[in-house]
Amino acid sequence: MSTNPTSDVNDALYATSPGLEGAAINPTADLQADLGLDSMDSINLVAAIRERTGIEIPDHELAHLRTVAQIVAYLRDHGAPS
After folding, report:
1. 13 contact partners, CB below 8 Å, separation of at least 6
2. What region holds the Carrier domain (predicted)?
């Protein structure tokens, strides 16, 4: 597990969404509306986050996590370093 959940989420986004490579990701940007992630991208994002952090995000939780900041808060609430 990394010591920086924000970097983990950003790295996972870059790995699963090639269109975002090199782009600055605003932590409050909506993953779907602003970053263009679809349902398959979201599934891949969750898998990539799990690989990086060891923390599983259940599908029913993912529906409520709309931004990088919300995902980071979830990870911290579930064991990622602050």
Report:
1. 20, 25, 35, 45, 68
2. 1-79
**Higher-confidence position of 1 and 36:** 36
Domain-located, residue 82: no
Q: Give 38-66 pLDDT, tens digit per residue.
A: 999 999 999 999 999 999 999 899 989 99
Please tell me the distance from the alpha carbon of residue 42 to that of residue 38, in angstroms, as a whole number.
Answer: 6
67 forms beta bridges with: 30
Residue 27: strand, helix, or coil: coil
Range of the domain at 20: 5-77
CATH number at residue 29: 1.10.1200.10
Q: Could you give the CA distance from residue 58 to residue 73 in angstroms, rounded to a whole number?
A: 15
Query: What pairs with residue 30 in β-bridges?
Result: 67
Q: pTM for the full model?
A: 0.89
